[in-house]
Design brief:
- The complex is a heterodimer.
- By secondary structure, chain A is mainly alpha-helical.
- Chain A has 4 helices and no strands.
- Chain A has one domain.
- The radius of gyration of chain A is 18 Å and the shape is elongated.
- Chain B has one domain.
- Classes of the chains: A mainly alpha, B mainly alpha.
Chain lengths: ~120, ~280
């Protein structure tokens, strides 16, 4: 059931994920430092829930705002990258099952990937 | 308190949570939400958003280390992820309708259960029983390395395990935790996978489960950058350090400390939830 090729593929996927997390963390650090420089002195008030600005609630809006240098959007961009790493893991696993011509698991993995992307892109549950 | 000072405290607290979570194997997400709500009086929804993000960071960050050990069963992981992601999306849909006081009570109960499980040694069970016929059809049976060489194992209770995973997904979304304890319970206790295989496959699944609901919560505005960034970086740094020093650490007393913290937080969450003060 488990051969060396399986393990090799998984190892490559694991490495890629670590790079993904590192990239996300770097973006979050940059955005976070800018955020503190800009808003750090303001009083923190998160007792009451006020939904984020609409621009920071969709992937498209976050990318647009981050491009214009909005510190909060840069943090969100890093977080979106992070949320995307498990999706990348599932996509790469799908690739591995395609190479192995494993139809049952191609289907299963596609279902999981579709559910993940559905949450991230449409955001309705 | 200014945003900078809050960020500093959150980063330090999250670092401790990530470190203890990695050293005890219970995960840091479990204490991040109580810390944010009880100590810093942050709205539960922001706490859940920040916690889920940190759960993903820990899971993806540790992936390579787990794979290298050669225990992860990818087919079991992917198969059960169908249940956890559907559960997570259902939980995220439910979250808007459940009052925060009820969520606090649920959180308290999950914390108490985790403390109870963590004090019990993992049960030894035979891994060479005849396989569940469904596991054969789904090709879930596999092998794992032991001191005595590669050993084969067969999988039991596939349907019940799948159902428990749905519950794990719902809890993960509702409470912003990795639900590792329920995942390991399903795989170790119900499906009779070897313990090491359960824990590593659980790590594989935690990130995927958390990402499903984190996507939904991003759209709902639960993910506040000023809170999520110190929590994510703190938990990640703590978890990575914890994984490094794991080999030489005396985990028994750490486990006791962490379990005590978990019980105190559980009682506080229950109290606040029942009194409606959260």
């Amino acid at each position: 059931m488990r051969d060396r090729r399986d393990e090799q593929i998984e190892l490559v996927i694991g490495r890629l994920l670590q790079w993904g997390v590192l990239a996300a963390a770097i973006v979050v650090v940059i955005g976070g430092l800018l955020l503190l420089a800009q808003y750090g002195h303001l009083p923190a008030n998160f007792r009451q829930f006020n939904s984020e600005d609409a621009a920071l609630r969709s992937v498209g809006g976050i990318i647009r705002a981050a491009r214009s240098g909005d510190s909060r959007a840069i943090v969100q961009l890093g977080l979106v990258l992070l949320i995307a790493t498990p999706a990348a893991r599932v996509a790469l696993t799908l690739g591995a099952f395609i190479i192995q011509r494993d139809r049952l698991y191609m289907l299963t993995t596609t279902i999981v990937l579709a559910l993940l992307l559905y949450g991230l892109i449409w955001g309705r549950a | 308190m200014s945003i900078s000072l809050l960020a500093l405290f959150l980063a330090l607290g999250s670092f401790g949570a990530g470190l203890l979570g990695a050293l005890t194997g219970l995960g840091g997400g479990l204490v991040v939400v109580p810390m944010m709500t009880l100590l810093f009086h942050i709205d539960l929804r922001y706490a859940i958003g920040a916690s889920l993000v940190s759960v993903i960071a820990t899971s993806s960050g540790a992936a390579a280390a787990y794979v290298r050990e050669g225990f992860t069963n990818v087919r079991v992981g992917i198969f059960l992820e169908v249940a956890t992601t559907v559960g997570a999306l259902s939980g995220a849909a439910l979250a808007g309708f459940i009052p925060t006081s009820a969520l606090a009570v649920l959180f308290g109960l999950v914390l108490l259960y985790t403390a109870y499980r963590s004090l019990r040694a993992p049960e030894e069970h035979p891994t060479d029983l005849p396989s569940d016929p469904l596991a054969l059809r789904l090709r879930l049976n596999s092998t794992y390395p032991t001191a005595a060489g590669i050993r084969a194992y067969s999988v039991q209770g596939v349907k019940k395990g799948f159902a428990l995973m749905f519950v794990a997904g719902v809890l993960s979304a509702l409470l912003g935790i990795g639900s590792g304890i329920v995942k390991v319970l399903a795989m170790d206790h119900t499906m009779k996978l070897p313990f090491k295989v359960s824990t590593t496959t659980s790590n594989f699944m935690i990130g995927v489960t958390a990402a499903a609901s984190a996507g939904v919560y991003l759209h709902r505005g639960y993910i506040e950058p000023a809170l999520a960034f110190p929590v994510m970086l703190g938990v990640l740094a703590g978890a990575l350090l914890g994984a490094r020093i794991l080999a030489g650490a005396k985990t028994l007393w750490l486990r006791r400390i962490f379990t005590t913290v978990v019980v105190v937080l559980a009682l506080e969450m229950l109290y606040k939830g029942l009194r409606g003060g959260l």
